[in-house]
Each structure stands twice: as structure tokens, then as C-alpha cells.
Amino acid sequence: MSDSMIEHSVARVFADNVDKSVLHAVEGGAFADRLWNLVTDSGFHVAVASEASGGIGQTWGAAYPILRGLGYWQVPLPLAETMIGACLLSAAGIELPEGPIALIEQGHDSQLTLQGSAGARTLHGTAKRVAWARHSPTAVVSLAGGGLALVDLREPGTSKATARPNHARIPSDDLQFEGARLLAHAEASMTGLELPVWTLGAMARSAMMVGALEWLLEQSVQYANDRVQFGRPIGKNQAIQQQLALMAGDVAAARVAATVAANDAASPAQADVRRTAFSAAVAKSRVGEAATRGTSIAHQVHGAIGFTHEHLLHFATRRVWTWREEFGADSWWAERLGRAAISARSEAFWPALTDRHYQGGLI
């Protein structure tokens, strides 16, 4: 499937089927079953899984329009999580499960232990702020030792979800595991990629934020041209023009960072992981900065109407604020980049930038 075909399919599915009624229903606690069926019928959820495992076998770069579309149309589905889960399971040779997949990185917002012997292992402990956990039959757990586990979230008495909706009013639940059964376990996921869930999650959230920021920029420019005050559009005001220009520059830089991260992200079809973490860290840092300024400018341009519940603006800004914090905030990834640069010392700094990886560093 070509990039243009994916982009066309994404626009057709999301533009025609995501509206305010769907957004309100999901924020009220429902799951968008019809929309999920359309997405799975299109194969979006297995776009990056290998063909041998039943996927489409695309790279993350080719699948970028899907992630970007999730943000642009504010799609209320666990699609990015399921794409990442399917990618990791496929790379580990584990059969893909049915339904949405939640994501957990051991040691990051979680305190988890495995108990039992091979073939009969169970999961114990807690995981906080797991997106879409209540709607996911399974979860992919990236283990601290480099392994990967597929966990059953539906077996009675072994896992409990406590509702914790986030700023976007999307499910982000705390999970308590008391002997949850492992449906599958692999000793390694993607060889050489530390924190695969966290890293691919940061890459995905960066692309999603770019999509939402592009939508916010379009809406802000349109509103500035349409809103007339004192006899002329407010977009004629030089101060507003300057703010929109600043936002446009931020969005352009964020788009480049997110696109590079997607192209560098490891997948079953692209096994070289050297650049994956570096580019994901850069993207999450740069897009996070753009998100902070861009959402502020969008609300300033729209004025009071942008804060009303009836206006569509808040659906995008609340998602951007939520995604900015998930899978490591921009400050967390910036610190990680800084530590890698210090560890590599000055002679490795320029080679690391040009080749987008630190040899033997923390990234």
C-alpha cells in the first residue's frame, strides 16, 4: 500500500465518521464501536505488523498519515496503542490478539513483577495511567530485562481497572494486577531498543500532536480572517499576525521532527534501531514545545469563544495537553538527550547529530 493510498484512506475514514456527537459519546464513557470496525476493516491497526503475522508490513514512516490523522481529526480510539502493540508482538513472533491493545512499560508509571516458572508466569503489581485499559482485552508489557509479555486484562479476579480519565476525558486507567495470566512471553522484543513501548509511544504521540496542531493552526487562521471587530478582520492586526506566524513556524518545525522520528522508528520491516530513540526524543521535545505555545496562541486568537464547551477548539487542545505528557514529557526526553550528549563528550556531539544516534550513550 503506497503512502498516498494510506493518506487517502485515512482522510476518507476519519473525515466522514468523526464528528462532535462521536467525541461527546466517547467522553461520556462509550466506546466508538462503529468507528473501530471501520478502522480495523481498513487494516490501520496492523499497518506496521509484518505480513507473516497478518499485518500489512509497512514502516512507521509509511504509516505516519494514520498517526497524524488521529490528531488532526481528534479520533477517539486506541489506534496508536494497538498499532504499537501489534508491531512489537509481530517483531517478537507472538500471535496478534483480537481487539484494542493497551501499552505498559515496566518501571515507568508502573511497579510490576513476574512470578512463576516458564509457561505459567503471572503478573503482579500496579500500572498507572494506562490509556484505554478498560476497553482493551489485552495489554503489551515491555519488561525491564528486554522481554515482552502479552497480558490478559479480562480474566476475572486477576486485574482491576480504576477509572482515571485524563484532560481529554479519554480513559486512562490505573491497573492492579493480582496474578494476571500471560497469554504469551518473549525473551526479547526489538533487539537493541531500550524502552520500546515508551519510545514508540513518544514517536506516535508526537505525530498525533502535529496533526492536532495543524488543525488548530488552520482554525486559528480562518477565525482571524472571519472575525470582524471595529470594521475589519482581527487577522489584520499585526500582533495577531505575529502570533500566527510564530505558531506556523513551530508547527513546521514540529512536523519535520515528527516525520523524521517516524521514518527512523524501528518496525519488523525496518530492524535498525540505532536512530529510533534519538529521533523520538528530539520529536517529543520539539513537538512538546510547539504544543505549549501553539495551544496558547490558538486560544488567544479565538478569545472567549474558544473556551466554551460548544466550540470544537477544546477537543484538540485538551488532547494536545494530554499527549504532551504521555510516554514521557518533553522535559523527560530533553534531559535524556542531554545526558547522552554529556556522556558522549564533545568529540561525539556532531557525529551524533548528523547520524542521529549516540554510540554507547543513553539514547
Describe the fold and architecture.
The protein is of the alpha+beta class and 363 residues long. The protein folds into two domains: 3-186, Butyryl-CoA Dehydrogenase, subunit A, domain 2 (Beta Barrel), CATH 2.40.110; 196-355, Butyryl-CoA Dehydrogenase, subunit A, domain 3 (Up-down Bundle), CATH 1.20.140.10. The protein is 48% helix and 15% strand. It contains eleven helices and nine strands. It has helices at residues 3-17, 20-27, 33-41, 64-72, 79-92, 196-226, 238-264, 276-302, 313-325, 330-344, 349-355; strands at 101-105, 110-115, 122-131, 138-142, 148-152, 159-162, 172-186, 228-229, 232-233. Strands 1, 2, 3, 4, 5, 6 and 7 form a seven-stranded mixed β-sheet that branches. It is globular and about 75 Å long. It starts with a helix and ends in an 8-residue tail after the last helix.
